[in-house]
Amino acid sequence: MSEISVIAGKSSEDLARKLSRKIKANFVKSEIRVFPDGESKITLSGNISKRKSIVVKSIYPPVDTNLVQALSLISKAKETSSEVIAVIPYMGYARQDREFLPGEIVTMKVLGKLFKGAGASKIIAVDIHSIIGFKHFTIKSKNVTAIPDLVKYFKKLSLKNPLVVSPDQGGKDRAKVFAKEFESEYIALEKKRDRKTGKIQIKIKNADKVANRDLILVDDMISTGGSIIKATQLLKKQKCKRVYVACTHALLMNDAEKKIKKAGVTKIVSANTIPGKTSVVDVSSTIAKAII
Ligand code: R5P
Known about the structure:
It is built from 8 helices and 15 strands. By secondary structure, it is an alpha/beta fold. Ribose-5-phosphate binds at residues 167-168, 170-171, 219-227.
């Protein structure tokens, strides 16, 4: 038996299998039964290594269900393995990393306690919303980025005088890294979100850069698609050519894909941290490098 086992959460089975092949680990599959009241029953099949287990489980919607399943897998792994690493490709709750309004609970603090309590000694995430989230964890943590993998995909498309665009200032560094790898220019729009209503407004300062160019909107995640839609509408007004979207985590809630396409986006490209139609970029090699 291999000295390492990869335990796959149901929501991340394909990525976990690819990872297990890359690191030559023993693959442990999980079957889930969700009862009518919402409780999950998990059954594992395969041998868990005594030395090291890697639990792979993204925490995407239903977020709380997937969180409890991830904690259960970690806890079960720890019964046999002396070391358990939790690979959480999409770290749900990462946007709740600080108290934006008085009285708000910083849920990332709670997650830090839960992962440690369940038995994980290290967490690996892919493009966590902000590294601030990990500051609340007392166990080791590592963030890896899908940007080089996304860039590889975009290099195969023939784009016309491409420009990388971040929909907000918070994503400026991400766009800068993407643009450097892609060997292009980048700009960052200015987005304001009303903390109470969630409504967003987007403005552009470098409008002169956009006309007649193919654009790649780069973001860490798409949830409702609101940010991408507003950005696309604004960029289209500046007479750009095609708009592509490159993001790590495509949650695409409430028909977001349809709405984004309707706003004029040619193609959405995302990583396989969340399975789905747009998730064509595999990040298993990137995760493997962080483990070995
Ligand atoms: C926000 O700062 C994030 O980087 C994303 O831009 C945002 O969470 C996407 O959410 P939505 O798709 O709902 O606009």
